[in-house]
Amino acid sequence: MDWQAIGVSVRLAGLTTLILLPLAVPVAAWLALSRRRIAVLLEAVVALPLVLPPTVLGFYVLTALGTASPLGRWWQQTTGATLAFTFSGLLVASVLSSLPFAVQPLVAAFAGLDRRLLEASAVLGRTRAGTLLRVALPLSKAGLATAAVLTFAHTVGEFGVVLMVGGNIPGATRTVSIAIYDSVQAFDYATAARTSAAMLVFSLLVLTTLYSLRRGRRTRWPRP
Amino acid sequence: MAATLTARVRRHVCDLHLSIDTARAPVTVLFGPSGAGKTTLLRCLAGLDRPEPGSHIQFGDHLWDAPRVHVPTRRRRVGYLFQDHALFPHLPVAGNVGYGLHRMPRRQRPERIRQALAAADAAHLHDRPTRGLSGGEAQRVALARALAPRPQLLLLDEPLSALDTPTRTRLRGDLRRLLLATGVPTIVVTHDRTEALTLGDHIAVVIDGRLHQHGPVDTVFNRPATAAVAAVVGVDTILTGHVTGHHDDLTHIDVAGHVLHATPHRDLNPGDRTLVCIRADDIALELPGPPRPASPRNQLPAVVTAVHPDGPVLRVSLDAGITLTAYVTRPTGEHLDLQTGRQVTAAIKATAVHLIAHPAVERPH
């Protein structure tokens, strides 16, 4: 089994989650609670990575990160390195492609909040940011956990975007899913099978954790 | 902290003009049927809803709403009591009460939390979690939370409607005392007549998005300005009196020099100020004659001052030294030959005289 690839995957998924959650909370709050109509448009933009083929997303990210783009050039001037085909570039791509997985559970949680609690906070002199931190977030712990787990799991399982933006550099951009693809290409079915089985167990574990988080508040049939 | 609140609030079908002098009326009740626009007005005062153009809200020196002016809720320094309390379920009682104290030095907050809880008669709830509070307890905690930041105006939306009947009855009497003790000018929204009478100094009757009448509670209830107001407040005689004592299983009340007898009211002591409510249906009229034994304990000589047809009955206004309103059927009216200037005796059973404790405003002299 390619432990180096597992290391890259875990590091990528962990960092993506750490970066994405603080970004997703204000975005989700705005989407869920804004009175402005333009919120609908932004909600659609945030959901785009769900529908777009990973190759399309990867293509745009690659173009945006390349040295031909202002962003790529700025990055090269400040750090002296390129973004494309590096771990940092992969991280940027992964944050974008996992955006809906972090935002949507939070939107659902915020939209389900009792509006009076937010109003009570405003009457007691708190700003929107203060209300978000002290009322909305503490009451949305399940949504926050779901967002974290989904983001982590989705990043581990991402393939197309990684291949487009990261390439296949061992120790830097070669993730588990790429490693499996590589093994199959090299007719090393034994390694592919082991790694695939590990991924299967991991995914099942993640989903079980996720659903047990929500189990308590579900409605069930009355006892017969 | 007295100030004048002037508001013109337009929103949807509502167009309400209201001016409240909080020095003269510490507690003003917005009264009217459900859906009349009372809560809309209250929410606009708090800044929770934004009124439509043409609106104007000013409280003392603070301009809150005007063309191109809208002070956000958090800067208005109002206390707002929500109908269902809206306590933060993830914070304990003390956390809820201290929630609005973020501008206060941290060391001073525990003391203020204790003061606010004490002012709401809820000191014993300090260490309780919020989940598991009874309706009445949650209500007191919500009041303490609203009072803790020392608001300049207190807004209560149907404060007692979420409570069960015994709790509501108990808290109703306490609430006015608590509100007067805080000294914070208060506006209460209610559709409940007893609540309006119990809590308010002044009452503003809101029907179909318009302000119909605004004045002292007894004035509005005794002399409804329009038929619509009369229909909403009911035709009752509301008098202000003082308890003189309890004798023969009756409570005696002095109303402008006249003594009325009522069924005993345990919470009232001699000297207490009380409202005396008598439904128009409960006043019987008799022709004056020699005294004879009769069951009604109150027999008041009176002069008819006006007779108005009101559907199938007559509404008779009486001057018995105090102003009374009675309903009689048309045949009775003809039989007694009721017309302005006629001498009659108003008979009222002691059980029909309802007392509502109503502590006076303590004004500094």
Automatic annotation (TrEMBL), chain A:
Source superkingdom: Bacteria
Subcellular location: Cell membrane
Keywords linked to the UniProt accession: Cell membrane, Membrane, Molybdenum, Transmembrane, Transmembrane helix, Transport
Residue ranges annotated for the ABC transmembrane type-1 domain, each copy included: 6-211
Annotated transmembrane regions: 12-33, 40-62, 82-111, 132-153, 192-213
The keyword Secreted belongs to this UniProt entry's keyword annotation: no
Bilayer disposition of the protein: Multi-pass membrane protein
Family stated for the protein in its record: Belongs to the binding-protein-dependent transport system permease family. CysTW subfamily.
Role noted for this protein: Part of the binding-protein-dependent transport system for molybdenum; probably responsible for the translocation of the substrate across the membrane.
Stated name of the protein: Molybdenum transport system permease
Organism ancestry: Bacteria, Bacillati, Actinomycetota, Actinomycetes, Micromonosporales
TrEMBL record, chain B:
Pfam families cross-referenced by the UniProt entry: ABC_tran, TOBE
PROSITE patterns, per the entry: ABC_TRANSPORTER_1, ABC_TRANSPORTER_2, MOP
UniProt cross-references to InterPro entries, sorted A to Z: AAA+_ATPase, ABC_SmlMolc_Importer, ABC_transporter-like_ATP-bd, ABC_transporter-like_CS, Mo/tungstate-bd_C_term_dom, Mop_domain, P-loop_NTPase, Transp-assoc_OB_typ1
SUPFAM superfamilies attached to this UniProt entry: MOP-like, P-loop containing nucleoside triphosphate hydrolases
Residue intervals of the ABC transporter domain: 1-233
Domain of life: Bacteria
Gene Ontology molecular-function annotations: ATP binding
Domain Mop: 293-357
Keyword annotations: ATP-binding, Molybdenum, Nucleotide-binding, Transport
The protein's name: ABC transporter ATP-binding protein
